[in-house]
Each structure stands twice: as C-alpha cells, then as structure tokens.
Amino acid sequence: MPDLLIELFSEEIPARMQARAADDLKKLVTNGLVDAGLTYASAAAFSTPRRLTLTIEGMLDASPSLVEERKGPKADAPEKAIEGFLRGAGLTRDQLEERDTPKGKILFAMISKPGRPAAEIVAEVLETTIRTFPWPKSMRWGSGTLRWVRPLHSILCILSAEDGAQVVPLTVDGITAGDTTRGHRFLAPDTITVSNFEDYSAKLKRAFVVLDPAERRDTIWNDATNMAFANGLEVVEDAGLLAEVAGLVEYPVVLMGQIGEDFLGLPPEVLQTSMKEHQKFFSVRNPKTGRIERFVTVANRTTADDGATILAGNEKVLSARLSDAKFFWENDLRIAQSEAGMQTWVDRLSNVTFHNKLGTQAELISRMEALAGELAPMVGADADEARAAARFAKADLSSEMVYEFPELQGLMGSYYAKAAGKSDAIAAAAQDHYAPLGPSDDVPTAPVSIAVALAEKIDKLTGFWAIDEKPTGSKDPFALRRAALGVIRILVDGSVRLPLSPIFEHWFDAAVSVFQTSGYHIVLPPKDGGKLAFGPDYRDPIAFDDFGNCVGFVSGSSMAEIDFEFAEYVLSTPRNWSNNLLSFLHDRLKVYLKDQGVRHDIIDACIAMEGNDDLTLLVKRAKALSETLKTDDGENLIQGFKRANNILSQAEDADGVEYSFGADIKFAETEEERALFAALDTAEAQIKPAMEAQDFGTAMSAMASLRGPIDAFFDAVQVNSDNATIRRNRLNLLSRIRTICSSVADLTKIDG
After folding, report:
1. Which of 114, 223, 234, 606 is the most buried (most CB within 10 A)?
2. C-alpha to C-alpha distance for 570 and 573, rounded to whole angstroms
3. What would be the CATH architecture of the domain defined by 632-749?
4. Residues 330-360 pLDDT 10s
C-alpha cells in the first residue's frame, strides 16, 4: 500500500489561518479519496508559515471495481420508459436482467465500474481541493485564475512505496506537481528532493524548518521559560500569543531583551498589551515585585552575533511604542489627579452616542448611577458609594490610554480611580463592571462591584427591550445574550436575592428622569386624534404607570404643543416588555443550568411558580426538584401525581364543577384511603413552613414521601365509585394531592 505526501508551498500564510487550513486540507483530501473508493490507515496534517503538508499512510493503490445494481421499470412498461432507463444506465436491452418480484417482472441493470489507479484519483481530488480551498481571504496574482491565500509557488505530490516514489501527474494553473520542496528562506533556500514523508521531514529539519507547529510551540516555551528562570524571572503565560508566534517562524530562535528603565513604572498590563499587540513579544515578570521587566521575542533564524542585532532593533522599536504609552499614561494621570478629576472624562462622554435611540454615553452613565443606587441595599453595598462607582466606571473611555488600547478599558479606570483618591471599592468596580464577559470568567464578588456590574447589564437589557431591539435568531449585535448570562451568573453564582421585575420599573423611572435632566420634554402618544404635551418646565418625577404603553422625549424650549411623531426618543413602558425580557432571561437560565445537569422541564416547572423573577430562588427550587426527581420516590411520585391530576381534570370537565375542597376522612372506606389522608396532613404540615422559609429541599422531601401512600391508594381504591358521596370525597382527596404538590412546583410540566 502506497503512502501519499502532499505539500502546498506558498508565500507566508497568516498565522491565525494556519491551523484551520491544515485541518481543511486533511478533511477535503481524505473525504475526496474515500468518496472515490481509496481508503487509508492514517493521516496527519502540518503547517508552517510557507507550507501546508499532508501525509497519508496505508492507502489503497487503486479503487476497487464495483458492480452497481439499478432497479428499472416493469418488463411490460412503455417502450419510452425502458429507453430512458437504458440511456441512464448506459446499457442495451439485452444487457438487462428480468426478474420475478411480488409486483411482477422487473428489469434490473448491472453496471460495472472498474477500479481506478490511486494517482489518477489523487490528482483529481487535489486539484479540486486547491481550486475550492476555503480560505477566509484569498488573492489572485499574475495572469492566472487561481485564488490562494498568498501566491502558490509549488506543489509536492508523491506516492511512495517500497519500490520507490512516483510523482502524481498534476498541473494546476501552470504549476506542475513534483517531488521537490525548499528549506528555510534564508538559512537553506536551495531545492530539496524527497522520496517519502520520513525523508521529507528529516531533510526539512536539516534545512532549518520545524514542520510540526506543536514542536515549534514547545521549543519556544521551553527555551523562553528556561531563559527567564536563569535570570530569576518568569514568562507570563499566553497560549494565544504562543500559537500565533509559532505560526510566524519556521525555525524558532528565542531571544530575551531589556525594557528601558523609564518604562518600568507603567502598569504591567500596559506593558504586556503593548508588547503583545504591536510586537508579538512575551512579557517577562519579576515574581517578587510583579513588574514586567523584560521581554522575549522569537526570531526566525540564527545569526552570527547570536541575535544581538535583532534584539537591538526590537528594543529600539519597543522603546518608541512604550514612549507613546508613557505619554498617554502621564497625561491621563494629570487629568485624574486634577481638581475636576475623572468627571472631566465623564463630561466628554456627553458628546459620544451610546445608541441613537437611547442617548449618549453620559446618559447611559446617569441611568447606571440611578440603578446602582437602587440595587446597592439589595446586594449589601453602600448606595452613595455604588452611585459614585457607576458614575466613574466608564470614565476611562475618554482617556488616551484606552483610546490607544481599547482592551484595557475598565482596568485603566481602576488605576485612574486610585490615582484620583477614590476608594478601593470604586476602583474595583471600574475594573469589574464589565465582568463576566465569558462563561468561564470570574464574577464580581465585592458588593459595590456587584451593584455596578448588574446596573451596567440590566441597563443594556432593559434599554434595548424598551426600544424593541431584541436578538433574533443567530443575530445579537448588542451582545444581549452575553449580558443576560452575566446577570444570571452574578446573581446565581453569588447567591444574590434580587427580584427583577421591580428593577425593570426602576430602570424606566431612571431613564425618564435622565432624559428630563438632559433637557428633554415628555410627550405622550395622541389620544382620540388629539395631541398631548407637557410644557418645558415639566420636571416632576413620575412613575411609569402614569404613562400609557410608551412615552416620547423631545428637545426645545418654547413649544406650546408637541406632536408625538416628532419625538427624538421613544421608550416603551415595562408593561410592554418586562415579561418578555424575563422570559428571555429564563431561556438563558435553561442553557446555563443544562450544563449543570438540570433538565429544561424541571426549570419550566419552577418558572411556573410565583417569584420566578428571583433567579437565585428559582435556581434553588429547580436544583432541589432535580435532586428529588433523581430518587425512586420522586420519579414515581410524578406518575402518581399525573394519574391523580388526569382523573381529577376529566371528572371536573365532565361534571362541570371544581373539586377543590371538602375531602373528609369519615367517608374513607379503606385503610389505604385513610393512610393517604394522614400522609397528606403530615406532608402539608411540613411543606407549608418549609416553603415559607424557602427550604426547598425539605419541601421536596416531604412531597416525595407521598409516593408510597398515593401508589397504595390507587392500587386499592376505585375513585369513580357508584356511590356519589364517596366519589366526590375521593375526587376532593385527589384535589388535595394536586394542591399540595403544586405548592412546591408545577409538576404538570415535568416530562414523562
């Protein structure tokens, strides 16, 4: 069985595309070969900045011959139908087989497909792969028609066996496949002839090309960490940067450089970000001080001076970059420590639009400030401190440092808040209020940070719901699903009790107040074709219930009457969207809890209960129910409950009455019936105080204890007795089962 070796040699492939391209090459070629009948034992793909390589071992030397059986029309079918079948099969009438079937005599065609040599199939598959390769971006060059990520220079394609290697005959856009490649661009640029993958890999290594990206990553990291350790330092881990740098070099040579003394006072995050984003340098930290003191760069070659010239050039470029950062840092500090302080930056945000239907960034901050003050006592934070933290949390968006490095927003706000003399809680809130950004990020834990982070995310959710800009399908341009997950994680992970429905109303009141403070006038939709407006001096606080379904805001100073159609901002009141937003959060909660093993139907059963806007309470109830249903008693109780509920519902529909009271033990005829009365009394006595104390575990256990008495009751008793009094009493008893169980969760929503 021959082995196949393919190399597509080009100009530099962007590092971020290499891993995906190697996988695509492997998938496209192997799928194409298998579809054509060529199976194989194993396959592996590799990439360097200038090449994609695929090796396939144990491949068939030819596709197998096949005989395809094709069913045709009946033997007595019209001639034209038979002729059409013959054309499709490429056969004549006498080559068909006539077989007896339950449906009569049917014509069958046996079509032979001879096998094809591997080289022929490989050539077809590889040409198709090259011409249809799914690069995110591609280009044409010269006079050819081929599109590739960068100009494609050569194709290596050989089939190797014990008796030697064969070049697969293939030409793509004037590039003819061969058995040659090239080594390092500078250290070994000559042509290299290869005979198989082992020969290819060994010769490339001698030509200063490390083919395997994993080997390049390991080399870089081991050399960098050893070099840092020798100097009493440590390399800051960055898996993404390591993968990217490994994609920039074919022969990694690790060098350690110095950072100018003038720049060591910059925040370590600034140094790290600048070096990573602009130079692709690794940061080297002093573990004793936490300062970034050196950097590691990776060259693509060895030099006679052991990299001294390369380092000198890199240090010069880095110095220029860090000089800019130092200038921004010092300017920002002067503003933060001035008399006006960070308020200067907040004022600048009044000229920055947050959203054309929700106002400016400054108005966003004002809404956050009001909302954080409302949330503060609920999360154990000081209201004044929470409002101050919300006021300055986004101030750094106006700073020069964040303008240069947007990824540092929040973090720089923390530094500037400390420099301005703000409390540690306010500084921490500036850094934490965006968190969590992802499912694995830490959530804020400090009370002030929690209040501001919740205010930021709730403002985003309520604001976009109020202007009817909800996510649709896969589209979520304002990252509202991420904001919803952030709210869920802050509340649930932090065990924060917070009913959300009143908070939505608080947001609306705050939004109205903020627009009023900004000089806008309230205008309501016309009623009965008329117009209704408030004068320019209207500033009295009003609740959302004072409005109809929406309210508009207009600017201007002398308007006797304002038409609603000309409102510059229009917000729907919470009655229009609060339930929908809560449902959205519930849907996100289902996704969140699914990963924790809580079924969606269990969550639905708990959502149906009162207090479902308190997500922490909802999760506590759902987890207790989930654990209960994992027990035999819990699982079987559901069946008993549903049986009771079905019998009761059918009887109520048939009789036109509600059996909701009046069950009396004196009408019980059997021991099982009397035992159920007693069990219900006991369970009710346990469940009621447990639910009041929100002790869902105890309530669920008490409910599950009903399993045995309910099963025994149905085994021994016929509910629909001929005695009307007995029947009514038993139906009322079933109603007690429904009422008691439904006080814990809506079990009708449980699957099964």
Report:
1. 606
2. 10
3. Orthogonal Bundle (1.10)
4. 999 999 999 999 999 999 999 999 999 999 9
CATH class of 343-518: mainly alpha
Whole-number Å distance between alpha carbons of 185 and 188: 6
- Once rounded to an integer, what is the mean pLDDT over residues 637-649? 87
| Beta-strand runs (E) in 480-619 | 521-524, 532-533, 550-554, 569-572
Q: Where are the beta strands (DSSP E) in 183-267?
A: 191-193, 234-235, 253-258
What is the identity of the amino acid at 15?
A
Alpha carbon distance 151, 145 (integer Å): 11
Kindly list the domain boundaries of the chain, sorted by start residue: 3-62+117-206, 66-113, 213-336, 343-518, 632-749
pLDDT at 542: 60
First to last CA, the chain: 54
Task: Give strand ranges (E) for 561-653.
Answer: 569-572
**48-57: per-residue pLDDT in tens?**
999 999 999 9
**Model pLDDT, residue 558:** 47
**Is the link from the previous residue into 436 a cis peptide, with omega within 30 of 0?**
yes
Are 697 and 624 in contact by the 8 Å Cβ rule? The answer is: yes
Confidence (pLDDT) at 545: 66
User: How far is the CA of 215 from the CAs of 46, 91, 297, 501, 574, in angstroms?
Assistant: 11, 56, 17, 55, 58
pLDDT tens-digit map of 255-281 = 999 999 999 999 999 999 999 988 999
